[in-house]
Amino acid sequence: MIEPEIKLIFAALFLLMYLGDRAASQAILPAFVLGLAMSGHYAQHRTEQERLRVVAFAFLTPFFFLKGGLNVSLSAVWANLGVLGLLVLAKMLPKLSGVYPLARRFAAPHAAFTTLLMSTGLTFGTITSLYGLQSGIIDRTQFSLLITVVVLSAIVPTAIAQRFFQPTTAQIEAEQLDDGQIAVAAEELV
Prior knowledge:
mainly alpha; 9 helices
């Protein structure tokens, strides 16, 4: 049998997606629950993780984002650019201010880079927006604005991080060398 582990995971995934759909929830949400439950296993089995990631990104992810993207009204986004700008700021400022102090403490030399990459929320923003649209909580204009905000809040910080704050190879090698020297010094003390 070819890749029985992946077949088992997909069987469980499709069952959870079916149950999520029957519960009038987002079918993709159980996939994230399964991912969290399996994270310990995949941390130890990297090859299996890589195989599943390839299949998931090639097969499942495009359908999920296409489903959301097809409901976006570009005319609604264009007509509400001011509101869009305010929503982007309202989403990004709290996230940046919440992540930066932790990044400064735990990833000090690259705190800005880490903060910008950690401040996205693409998947859960899309899930909640789709749920709101399908449940009738929000209309198509609101959905279009929310999805655009979610996408912009993922793309813009990532582009800024890569353009202005990405560490160079020399910086990373110097840090690894410093970490290695600290480890050797600690061993000598013992």
